[in-house]
Amino acid sequence: MIILGIETSCDDSAVALVKNGTEVIGSSISSQMHSSAGGVIPEKASRMHIEILPLLVDDLLKRFPDVKIDKLAVTTNPGLIPSLLVGVSFTYGFARAKGLEVIDINHLYSHVYANILEHPDIEFPHLSLLISGGHTQIIKVMSPIEMEVIGTTLDDACGEAFDKVARMFGLGYPGGPIVSKLALEGNEKAVNFPRPMIHSNDYNFSFSGIKTAVKRFIDSNKDVSKEDILASFEAAVAEVLVKKTIKAAKEYKLNTITLSGGAAANLRIREEFYKHENFKFYFPAISLCGDNAITVAGLAYHY
Ligand code: KG4
Ligand code: ZN
What we know:
Layout: E1 2-7, E2 12-19, E3 23-31, H1 42-63, E4 71-77, H2 81-98, E5 101-106, H3 107-118, E6 126-131, E7 136-143, E8 146-152, H4 158-168, H5 175-183, H6 208-220, H7 226-251, E9 256-260, H8 267-273, E10 280-282, H9 294-300
Parallel strand pairs: 1-4, 4-5, 6-9, 9-10
Antiparallel strand pairs: 1-2, 2-3, 6-7, 7-8
Helix pairs in contact: 1-2, 3-9, 4-5, 4-6, 5-7, 6-7, 7-8
The structure holds 5'-O-[(R)-(carboxyoxy)(hydroxy)phosphoryl]adenosine and zinc ion.
């Protein structure tokens, strides 16, 4: 079963051919540049998808002329509507022309699938901490296509908090990679930022308070280095995320934990997990943390 996957949920146009859920035949991705604007402009993003997506598909199919596609798969939600519409319209048009079936893919499920694709023998049920630019969720994963959200952010998403803090320092978009790089040079004990909801009696998160605390601190303390502030911010986020995930894992009696979503690339958060013994942790390859079409085509095999 060979599936052509298409992903345009935000600012990455991506295509991939995957066999039987795990075997990557070929893929490509084109990431848009929204750095100067400090964030993604939805209309601009959709216009860029329109230009690039047909070229990516064309190029991929030319690279593998002997591959016979059995089905198509496309991310349908959640995401930026103008961006999603480009992928969905293209895929359904292409499918109609070729007489092929389309599998609709939930963007969050495809993020979680990254770990399953890399470790098909992973234990079910397991727990996944999904951290991206739009979501922060603790998810009980019963199978590749059955998931239950047990906690979520009440305001900003984890990646969004990194993006907003990066903007305070004029570091461009996306903020996560540059913030975590600069944080490596800083002292994470320099500033004791709040750990919102760390002791709350649920598995929800809140990141807007940390973000505001960072803003206030920057405005009133000019003598602390950017690196120290970023390292302290990152440590606060990592501690809250990991403490609550471990608490959920204990309560739900799940000892396999995966990290997924764009911010799963963060090494400090990964390190925080390793402070906890008696759990099996899975972290995706960096290339499968962010938006991509490999996990879209892979997950579609399970429907
Ligand atoms: O999953 P993704 O590619 O797109 C969404 O579905 O949102 O995630 C993008 C988010 C951005 O907010 C970006 O700043 C964040 O992931 N991110 C990171 C890191 N790399 C990417 N956040 C923290 N640390 C990183 N190393
Ligand atoms: Zn995503």
